[in-house]
What we know:
By secondary structure, this protein is mainly alpha-helical.
Amino acid sequence: MIRPRVVLFLANQRRLLRSSEAALVALAVGIGLIAGVLTLAQNEIAHAVQRFFYGRDIDHLSASTFIEPLRLIALPFGGALLALVGYAVRRRPAAPIDVVEANALHGGVIPFRDSLLVSFQTLLSNGSGASVGLEAAYAQMGGGIASIAGQWLRLRRNDLRVLVGAGAGAAIGAAFGAPLTGAFYAFEIVIGVYTPAALATVAAACLAAALMVRISGASPYLITLPSAHAIVTADYFIYAALGICCAVLGILLMRAITFVEHLVRRSPIPDPARPIMGGLLLIPIAWASPQALSAGHGALHLDLSVQVGLGFLAAIFLLKIAASVVSLGFGFRGGLFFASLFLGSLAGQMFAGLFALVPGAVPVDPTDAALVGMAALAASVVGGPMTMSLLVLETTHDFALTGTAITAALCASTLVRQQFGFSFSTWRLHMRGEAIRSARDIGWVRSLTAGRMMRKDVRTAEASMPISEFRRRFPLGSTGRVVVTKPDGSYAGLVITSSAHSAADADAPIGTLAILADCVLHPSQDVSAVLRTFEREEADDLAVVDESKRVLGIVTEKYVHRRYAAEIEKAQKEFFGES
């Protein structure tokens, strides 16, 4: 008796969520609270692992002044544990789906086991000291919980994508104690576009998560850092130059990681041994400076609070880059969000120091330059210039400095987009063969295939049939084109009916008039590939064939364009909340 009532209740809730925006916002609040709790829990777990490996007095690993050499064995030991995890899941058909890939290709669907795997690997990597950030785990669990809830409630595709973005953004907002940053992270990086229809849902989740963290009393990733001096007009040009420098550094960093990954894959090092080898290579880097370890937020605050020399900044900058490249290149799991913030702050301080060496130059405050550099380099690597600029606003509460941060971040992201075209997450997906440049939904493009668009009522004729017989069987007006087949039934080309009726030699085989014999479509090709084929061949009709070249159907260019335009219009209506 109870079970039917539960089923009826769930069915009513599903109908309510599909028809009421207010109900979806209420669901987002719940997701935001859960994301906030999960972010706090993961942060505590990562710090507990660090204290286990490096000592109970460890607060922030990267802010440590000294680490006992024996404790650095935690780096290869953490790599060995990662190798064991990799061995346990070696039979997986593909890499885990992250939130960006899920929203771009899978309509927001994330298997929960993927979220658990990414979170566990990231916590283990960061906890053992590898130079990776926890944002991958935060966003994955926030988005993963949202995806599970949305699938269970059978939300529409676009509502599920928005909810996944809200969950991921809420987790990032909770980590920084910055709801605006979390909201724009959701829009720019996870959802891929800003829409008024999604604003309330995303904002509600991020506010709920930030409130949860505030109530708990936990410290956010960045403490409030006031601006040092008033911003003048010249600062906008100076920081625009800093943004361009950060863009170059960001591109070099992403390419360096990919280059090392390729070298490691081509090397004779077995897959399970790669993170162990990476941990061994990290030991001398950590011995040189603990600031290169973990995410780097402890070192970020330390270097901002203490005036250090240009040489020291350059050394830490190079060590941190080396640690990040080795960590990610050798198989540790994590992100570059937190690391890019630290590197950006170092780049900004170095920029200010170098600028001071120019005779007669306007002095640049190192703290302001660090904050602007932080936003610019993170925008270059992670994407989302407004996300990083709002992080500066919520960190400093200074609108004038935020204006310069926006300038630098926009310059950086524009240059990266023009010269590189990817953020770090989409670049890694691109290297796996995925045509993704953002989280914008292209999953419907892949589902709209030649097999779905073809007409199956195909009229055929054998290539050896005389043209006179062809004319008798297919009179003018009966059909526009006929598929010509070989004796074994495989595809041999298309014949335009009118060309057969105007041919001079009526006794010649119809196969002599066949066109497009070497140009066919396959049922799995998506609409983009189909359109490119039509454009390349300048054809009006194309045959769809199977692996043995037997004809399955016909696709016309006009119909493909009409379906493509209809699907785009449908997607736009869903994004803007139109019925």
